[in-house]
Amino acid sequence: MRPQTRRWRNPIPFPETFDGDTDRLPEFIVQTGAYMLVDETLFSSDALKVTFLITRLTGPALQWVIPYIRKESPLLSDYRGFLAEMKRVFGWVEDEDF
């Protein structure tokens, strides 16, 4: 009989989805960033981080990202670039940056 191994569980709550609501973008970025920061082994590359963000998109935000996926955009492997594009598209005012 094999000993049971406990799978590590991220202590940060799983991030809520983002549908493109500009008012929720800062919250979405903080939630997803904190979740990924705690498990840097799993989110070890920009591509994995962007992919995780994409899995949390719904509605208009998901529709927005589909052309990037179809074109295999370089932004899909550039976490900071992807966040900058999200901020630009969904109306994050620059002086609100943290």
UniProtKB/TrEMBL annotation:
Listed InterPro entries: DUF4939
Pfam families: DUF4939
DUF4939 domain: residues covered: 2-98
Organism superkingdom: Eukaryota
Protein name: DUF4939 domain-containing protein
